[in-house]
Amino acid sequence: MILVTGATGNVGRHVVQLLVDAGEQVRAISRNPERAGLPDSVEVVRADLAQPETLPAALRGVDRAFLFPVVGQAGGFLDAATDSGLGRVVLLSASAVTIEQAGAIGRIHAEYEQAVATSGLPWTFVRPGAFMANDLRWAPGIKAGGVVRAPFGQAATAPIDERDIAAVATRALLDDRHDGKAYELTGPESMTLVDRVRTLGEVLGRELLFDEQSPEQAREQMIAHAPAEIVEASLSLFASFVGTTADMSPAVPEVTGRAPHTYADWAAHHAADFR
């Protein structure tokens, strides 16, 4: 039995489906099982990383787990996992742990990794960089008037499709040869925000406008949805990417045996979300 936390999220939902396709028994935890919308063969149980007392039952009979960490809650999961005799944990971390400018973002994910590494459980770390799925936040502006507003239009990253993150995580869950490894994950191309907006417009068959915000304007919007230290770290990180070319990691093809999805692939897959 494989347990998936964060099972209804952008990555976790794909992990669940890939495990089901591989013929595995899957248990998912959710605060609202009746609304999870997962495949019928998946056992969905009511549990919450923020409520450690719910975790021993969720981990009973489980030998491997995909951990989508929640701030301040990884320790409770790891304690319960150790007590239950879990055989392997695959942690969704972030490439920010290797980037000095990432500040609080890198520090938080490094703390997750440290907690897992010192738990005594066999582990694999999956470290994606920028998620293509983060661009779904542009959908309201695109639907309303074909405008994307964001700071640092010339900041370059190699964004990765959530399906590729899930594919690497699933391989790590299914094969112990990935134990003790940390995989930095990127997409196949370096792209600025302006490049992504242009590509998205080409896929949608309409011209989109990129309206560059100042860091101050972006900060004012972001602070309503995230802690101040995360907002400042995000702005600092993306400012450091302006005028650069992102490095590409070979991890997705090495682990999965196929090329990662391009941004155009991702945009086509999500076209309905922008229309």
Topology, pairings included?
Elements: E1 2-4, H1 12-21, E2 26-30, E3 43-46, H2 55-59, E4 64-67, H3 74-84, E5 88-92, H4 103-117, E6 123-128, H5 139-145, E7 147-151, E8 156-157, H6 162-174, E9 182-185, E10 191-192, H7 193-204, E11 209-213, H8 215-222, H9 228-240, H10 251-256, H11 263-269
What does this protein structure show overall?
With 275 residues, the protein is α/β, with parallel strands linked by helices. 39% of the residues lie in helices and 16% in strands. The chain has eleven helices and eleven strands. It has helices at 12-21, 55-59, 74-84, 103-117, 139-145, 162-174, 193-204, 215-222, 228-240, 251-256, 263-269; strands spanning 2-4, 26-30, 43-46, 64-67, 88-92, 123-128, 147-151, 156-157, 182-185, 191-192, 209-213. Helix 1 (12-21) crosses helix 6 (162-174) and helix 7 crosses helix 11. The longest helix has 15 residues, at 103-117. It is globular. The chain starts with a strand and ends in a 6-residue tail after the last helix. 43% of the residues are buried.
